[in-house]
Amino acid sequence: MIRVLLADDQALVRAAFAMLVESARDMEVVAQAGSGREAVDLARAERADLVVMDVRMPDLDGIEATRLIAADEDLAGVKVLMLTTYDTDEHVVEALRAGASGFLVKDTKPAELLDAIRTVSAGDSLLSPGPTGRLIARVLRQPQAPHAEAPVPAALGALSDRERQVLTLVARGLNNTEVAEALGLSPLTAKTHVSRIMGKLGARDRAQLVIVGYESGLVTPGAGG
Predict the structure, then answer these.
(1) Which residues in this protein are found as 4-aspartylphosphate (predicted)?
(2) What are phi and psi of 28, to 5 degrees?
(3) Where in the chain is the domain with CATH 1.10.10.10?
(4) Are strands 50-54 and 2-7 parallel, antiparallel or unpaired?
(5) 153-215: what fold?
(6) What confidence score (pLDDT) does residue 103 get?
(7) What would the pLDDT profile of 23-76 be if each residue is shown by its tens digit?
(8) Residue 193, by phi and psi: left (phi above 0), alpha (psi -120 to 50) or beta?
(9) Do 52 and 84 contact (CB within 8 A), yes or no?
(10) At the top level of CATH, which class does the domain 2-127 belong to?
(11) Angle formed by the axes of helices 206-215 and 187-201, to 10°?
């Protein structure tokens, strides 16, 4: 069973998500939080596998809550799936840097949300494919875009030519199967490349690879979005 913690400041939204999650045979809601601070406390108390976290919450917003969860060694196995109302929410980039394993917009279809929970809890990362490229490209065009927690672009020098190709495709939102098809590789080989790239760049997951792909210039604003 996938143990899910729901964090949203709107009680009706939490209730709707709870009903949806409980309808799945392979997951259960172990707690609900109405603020970021409560989400962090409950993540520690309940040892949930995954937190479905709203970006905007009182007391402590979803980004700071995610950062605290990601920095807590005792919560190393806890994944965060960020939810936002709009796919233009520039705070999503900060959330990915803070340690979120991906994000979805709140109007995602119910079945897609359940699939996202399964994907992230299994250790993969998930980003809304359409909005991701547009959003990150737009935010990184801004002069004051934060860079503190992204992997160091200089580390790209450690990547082989093939790994740089793979990173470029991952940064554009392609999954392992799509990367494999684009480069004529097996899915297993593509997955191996992605794992090695994350190790060399010190990235936690694919979400950070998207960030470093744009910040390093491998993927330019407007390309592959």
Answers:
(1) 54
(2) -145, 150
(3) 153-215
(4) parallel
(5) Arc Repressor Mutant, subunit A (1.10.10)
(6) 79
(7) 999 999 999 999 999 999 999 999 899 999 998 888 899 999 999 998 898 898
(8) alpha
(9) no
(10) alpha beta
(11) 70
